[in-house]
Each structure stands twice: as structure tokens, then as C-alpha cells.
């Protein structure tokens, strides 16, 4: 029995198990298979999902033809930056000076001026709906509480969870403040029923308003605490929010942390400004004998050239929705599809400052899937050669305390970690400030170990998977992180009127880039790709593309034929990268060949014109196509989510209104 003799429905099910490039191969080599693929809406839909970098929502009530039509309209609207409708959301006087302004999972959030409550607005998908603000008490159902709301984190689709971080005075302890977080059920405002303890203590310090950033995936809640006044060293905490158990507390250097993000449910990336690298932490799955999270890798960024210093190092990435949970999420939106977390981008903001007062700001874009592959490569036990030439002069000293629970007598583990040096450091101090705190209870046993990790230079990992944009460091908009899926938005002041902004969206979807580049070649008769710069050429290419949109209804399927060639190119690049890593560990007689291969690879990359800000050439190989919105806008900042662009309007008091452009 051959494949073609099977029933049509069974052939369709088999083809659904294949990757997109394999399906396209079947379509090209066999007429019967081509007819099956062309006649199957289900196959066409999942092919379109893979090309668009989205994942299907199994809980959507829409039929597959309706989902396919919605996806086609959505992709076309984002190419044109043509909104389906626009609306304006007013900001009341109580939230005008909000220090928190964020959109996540279909809601827009602002804090009250009194820093006690959180205000949210449900973002509609229909123009006839009237958006309204609702108030979430910062401490949930507690009626009498002191303190201020310093930040929040959310996992709405996954857990119907919102976490408020509260800083409050400590009674009978002058000038001391307690940082805690409260776990609330978002839909009701009550304490979350899955949380064993609704309020969890983080730390005590002299600082009334520390900087806090937090992310939630599964049962893990990770946060960094940055001391703005320098009274404490920066810290990383990881909790199991359901049990309230602290998995690890890590002491870093001063001025090290400001943000963090999950790149997978078990991998956490933390930018370290003091050491100019990304920390990669592994969170082991739950076990009966749990192991604490540990740092497994350090990925360095380009070295800053004196007299410049690195003054800002943040990262952001949406969506944070881990796809394995889609089938079991009771609070999932009925939308037909979501951006794939694995195929999304991370946006990193790097700011430098010199003693002459000169400031620069860059967006560094990294593809998440490529970053995961990079982490896997550099932590693979098979690459033993890497230990011969990469530095290991930093380590984390981890002390695990076994603590008896005062209530039921059970034992828990509290891990304390701190950064140490394995060699003397005359020019840099790893000094930490403030006491380390162990969870309450009687510590009966403790053990200490030292965990080293590789520090991989930027040139060894960064260029193939990254792209840089230089931003205007003086605009308010440049200090926001705004990306979702494989798109990010940025703005620049208009040359005609510096008070207004030109808005652009960069699309890092390789399928969309290939199509745009192919159309450019067809129009110009040349083989040059000039759409990836983020300059006017990218915008002009998009304008020409829009003129031919009506002739492209079936182009998605045809363009996917090119994916085989792209995959082959990616495989060749991966093989070249692995060869580079292996050759560098060989003896001197092989180093010349490796240098030649590096030079050949670099010829395919673009070079960032950083004007001496960095002490090395900065190569970039990640491609994108840039779409520019028509006209200029009177916005103070531009944000985005998976379906919308937001224009934040300002007045003398602060936030005035939010212009919402629903694209789809």
C-alpha cells in the first residue's frame, strides 16, 4: 500500500504532521498530492500559520476557513500598516502621572497617582465597543494597608493571575521598608485560590521605592530588584508562586539588573549591565529532591570603548505565553491564533554615556528560536573544546539551606547564591551590599558549592542572530520596550516638525523578508536585498509592494516554495558556526583556516556604524523588512501588542489619552 492509495482524509492527516517545506516538496513532485494540498483548507491554514509565525488556538470557535481568512487579512494589514479601525481611550486625572504604562494580553494598564491601585482597560476588537477603565486594588481585598505599588506582573491567559509588588514601612524599624508581592485573581480582584500564601515577602531594605521587574511562566515567578540609591546590591529572586517557596536568591554586583525575561519555560535570560553580558539561568523541573536554579552560561555583548560606559541594558519580549499550555488554559482568549513564542524576537535596549555628556541608544534585536539554539550549542557536553579557550573567571557560589517548616515540620530548601571571582580582579569589584536573608524557620543543614559558567564573546554567538538599530536617545518613546511576536515598532522625530513622530514597524519574519526581497528583485532586475536596513529604502520597497497587493492573493502558497532553499542556507550557516567553534580549539596549524572562514562569514553580514562607541566591529546578520506608517503623529510614545499599535498622547500633567490602531 502506497501513500496515494490511502483515503484522502488519512493522507491529509499525514501531511499535517510534516513541516511546511516538506509539504511544499510533496506539492511540487506529485500532481495527486498537489491536488490534495490545494483542496485542503486545513493544510492551507496550518501552512499559513507556520509562514506567519503563529500557533493555532484549539479553543477558538471559528471554523478553519474563517481562521485562514482572518490570518490572511491580518498579515496584509500589518504589511500595509492599515488599521481596521481607530479609537481613542481617555485617561482620567487620577492616572495622568502614572509611572506604569503597559499593554499585555489584551489589557492596557496604568497606576493611580496615589500608587495604591492598578487601573486596566480591556482592549476591544470591535469598533462599536466602548472601552472602560476598571480598578484593581493594589492589595486585593485588604481594606486597610500601607505602602505603594511599585510594579506588577501578569499571567492572565495562563492563570488569571496578576501580581502586585508592594513597598511598605516596617513598624518599629525606622527607615526600613519591606518589599512583598500579592497574588490576585485578575477576574475577581480576590486573592488567587491556587496561591498557598496570598502575600509573599521578598526583602527588607532602607530603600522605599526599589526598581522591580518580574515575569511569570508556569509555577515560576522570577524578579530582579535594582537598588536605585545603591543601599543594596542588585538581586535576582525565583519563587514557586503557588507554594510560596523561594527557589533561589542571587546577589549580583551593584547596578547590574533592571529587567529579565523567559526564553523558554526552563530558561531565563537576565541582562547584567555591570558585566556587559546576558546571564542564562536554568530552572530545573520540579522534583522530589529539588535542585536550585543555576546560571549555566554568559553571553557577552560588544565591549564599550572608553570613555563611554554602558548605562542601560534591558530586554523585553512578547508574547510570554508558552505554547505547551495552550490546550489546558481555561482563561484563553477565543482568538483563532496567537504569535508563537518560540518564533518571536527579544528586543534589548543598550544605552551608553560618556563623560562629555554624549548619549547613544540602540535596539538590539535577537531571534528567540536562534537564541535557544545558541544556548543549547554552548551548553552541550559534546563541545568540550570550548573549555580550552573561553574564560571561566566568574562563578556563582550556591549555599543550600535545609529548613524545617514551623507549621507542619516538613523540610524545604532555601538557596542563596552570589557572584564570586576565581581570579583577582584589580579593576572591578564584585562587592555586594546588604545582608542575605534566609526564609523563616530553623535551618538544620546547609551545603555550599561553586558553579562556573562559560563566558562566550559576542563575535562567537551574536552576529548571525541579531540586528541593531540606533535610536534617538532624547525622545521619550525610545525608552519604552515595544515588540510582539516577530515585529517591533520604533519611532523617530520628524525632520519637518521635531515635536511629531514618524512610526515604523520592523518585521523579522523570514518568510515576509524573502517575499519582499524577491519582489524587489523582480521590479529592479537585480539580485540585491536592500530592505533590511530600516531606512528609507525599506519603506519604498513596501510602498511598491502595496501597489501589487491585489495580485498576491495566492502568493503565500507560492512563496513557501522558497523555504527549502532558506532551510538549506540556515543548515549551512549552522554547520559553518559549529566548524568555527571546533576549529578554534584545534592547534595553531588550523587557526589560519578558521580565520579565513570567519572572514567569509562576516562578508555576508552588515556592519553597524557605531562611530567608535564599541571597541570592536559589530556585525549583524538578522534580516527584516521595515514598514512605515503614512504621515506623522503627535505622540509622546508608541507601543504595540499582537493586534494593535498605541499612540500615547501627553499634556502638562502627563498621559492625556491613548490612540488605538487596531490592525488585527
Automatic annotation (TrEMBL):
SUPFAM superfamilies (alphabetical):
F-box domain
Q: Name one Pfam family in it.
A: F-box
For the keyword GTP-binding, the answer is: no
Region labeled Disordered — which residues?
517-608
Q: Which residues form the signal peptide?
A: 1-25
Matching InterPro entries: F-box-like_dom_sf, F-box_dom
Q: Which UniProt keywords apply?
A: Signal
**Bias (Acidic residues) ranges:** 533-604
Is Iron-sulfur one of the keywords? no
Residues annotated as transmembrane: none
Tell me the domain of life: Eukaryota
* Domain F-box span(s) in chain numbering: 1-46
List all Basic and acidic residues biased stretches.
517-526
PANTHER family from the entry? ECTODERMAL, ISOFORM F, EXPRESSED PROTEIN
What's this protein's name?
A: F-box domain-containing protein
Amino acid at each position: 500500500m502506497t501513500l496515494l492509495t490511502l483515503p484522502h482524509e488519512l493522507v491529509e492527516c499525514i501531511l499535517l504532521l510534516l513541516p511546511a517545506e516538506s509539504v511544499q516538496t510533496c506539492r511540487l513532485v506529485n500532481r495527486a498530492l498537489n491536488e490534495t494540498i490545494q483542496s485542503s483548507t486545513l493544510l492551507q491554514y496550518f501552512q499559513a500559520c507556520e509562514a506567519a509565525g503563529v500557533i493555532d488556538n484549539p479553543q477558538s470557535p471559528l471554523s478553519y476557513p474563517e481562521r485562514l481568512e482572518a490570518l490572511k487579512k491580518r498579515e496584509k494589514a500589518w504589511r500595509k500598516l492599515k488599521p481596521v479601525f481607530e479609537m481613542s481611550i481617555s485617561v482620567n486625572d487620577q492616572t495622568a502621572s502614572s509611572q506604569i504604562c503597559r499593554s499585555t494580553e489584551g489589557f492596557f494598564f496604568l497606576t493611580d497617582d496615589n500608587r495604591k491601585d492598578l487601573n486596566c482597560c480591556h482592549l476591544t476588537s470591535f469598533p462599536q465597543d466602548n472601552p472602560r477603565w476598571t480598578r484593581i486594588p493594589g492589595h486585593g481585598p485588604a481594606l486597610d494597608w500601607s505602602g505603594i505599588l511599585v510594579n506588577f506582573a501578569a499571567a492572565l491567559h495562563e492563570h488569571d493571575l496578576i501580581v502586585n509588588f508592594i513597598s511598605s514601612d516596617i513598624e518599629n524599624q525606622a527607615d526600613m521598608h519591606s518589599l512583598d508581592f500579592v497574588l490576585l485573581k485578575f477576574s475577581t480582584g480576590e486573592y488567587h485560590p491556587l496561591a498557598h500564601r496570598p502575600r509573599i515577602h521578598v526583602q527588607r531594605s532602607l530603600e522605599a521605592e526599589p526598581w522591580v521587574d518580574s515575569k511569570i511562566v508556569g509555577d515560576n515567578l522570577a524578579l530582579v530588584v535594582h537598588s536605585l540609591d545603591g543601599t543594596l546590591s542588585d538581586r535576582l529572586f525565583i519563587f514557586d508562586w503557588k507554594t510560596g517557596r523561594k527557589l533561589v536568591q542571587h546577589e549580583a554586583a551593584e547596578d547590574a539588573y533592571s529587567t529579565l525575561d523567559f526564553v523558554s519555560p526552563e530558561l531565563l535570560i537576565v541582562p547584567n549591565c555591570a558585566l556587559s553580558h546576558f546571564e542564562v539561568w536554568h530552572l530545573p523541573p520540579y522534583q522530589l529532591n529539588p535542585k536550585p536554579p543555576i546560571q549555566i552560561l554568559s553571553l557577552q555583548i560588544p565591549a564599550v570603548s572608553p570613555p563611554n560606559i554602558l548605562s542601560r541594558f534591558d530586554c523585553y519580549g512578547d508574547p510570554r505565553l508558552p505554547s505547551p499550555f495552550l490546550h489546558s488554559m481555561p482563561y484563553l482568549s477565543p482568538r483563532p491564533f496567537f504569535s508563537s513564542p518560540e518564533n518571536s524576537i527579544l528586543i534589548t535596549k543598550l544605552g551608553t554615556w560618556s563623560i562629555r555628556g554624549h548619549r547613544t541608544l540602540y535596539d538590539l534585536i535577537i531571534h528567540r528560536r536562534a537564541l535557544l539554539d545558541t544556548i543549547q550549542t554552548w551548553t552541550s557536553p559534546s563541545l568540550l573544546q570550548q573549555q580550552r579557550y573561553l574564560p571561566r573567571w566568574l562563578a556563582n557560589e550556591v549555599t543550600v539551606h535545609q529548613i524545617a517548616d514551623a507549621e507542619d515540620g516538613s523540610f524545604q530548601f532555601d538557596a542563596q547564591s552570589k557572584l564570586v571571582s576565581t581570579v583577582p580582579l584589580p579593576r572591578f569589584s564584585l562587592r555586594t551590599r546588604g545582608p542575605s536573608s534566609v526564609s523563616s524557620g530553623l535551618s538544620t543543614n546547609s551545603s555550599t558549592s561553586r558553579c562556573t559558567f562559560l563566558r562566550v564573546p559576542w563575535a562567537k554567538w551574536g552576529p548571525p542572530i541579531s540586528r541593531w538599530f540606533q535610536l534617538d536617545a532624547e525622545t521619550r518613546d525610545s525608552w519604552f520596550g515595544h515588540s510582539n511576536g516577530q515585529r517591533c515598532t520604533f519611532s523617530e522625530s520628524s525632520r519637518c516638525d521635531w515635536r511629531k513622530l514618524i512610526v515604523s514597524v520592523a518585521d523579522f519574519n523570514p518568510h515576509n523578508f524573502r517575499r519582499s526581497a524577491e519582489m524587489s528583485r523582480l521590479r529592479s532586475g537585480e539580485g540585491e536585498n536592500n530592505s533590511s536596513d530600516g531606512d528609507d529604502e525599506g519603506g519604498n520597497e513596501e510602498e511598491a509592494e502595496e501597489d501589487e497587493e491585489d495580485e498576491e492573493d495566492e502568493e503565500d502558497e507560492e512563496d513557501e516554495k522558497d523555504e527549502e532553499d532558506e532551510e538549506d542556507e540556515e543548515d549551512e550557516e549552522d554547520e559553518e558556526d559549529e566548524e568555527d567553534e571546533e576549529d578554534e580549539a584545534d592547534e595553531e596549524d588550523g587557526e589560519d583556516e578558521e580565520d579565513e572562514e570567519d572572514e567569509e562569514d562576516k562578508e555576508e553580514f552588515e556592519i553597524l556604524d557605531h562611530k567608535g562607541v564599541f571597541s570592536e566591529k559589530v556585525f549583524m546578520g538578522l534580516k527584516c523588512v521595515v514598514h512605515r506608517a503614512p504621515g506623522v503623529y503627535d505622540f509622546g510614545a508608541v507601543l504595540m501588542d499582537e493586534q494593535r499599535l498605541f499612540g500615547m498622547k501627553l499634556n502638562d500633567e502627563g498621559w492625556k489619552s491613548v490612540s488605538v490602531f487596531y490592525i488585527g
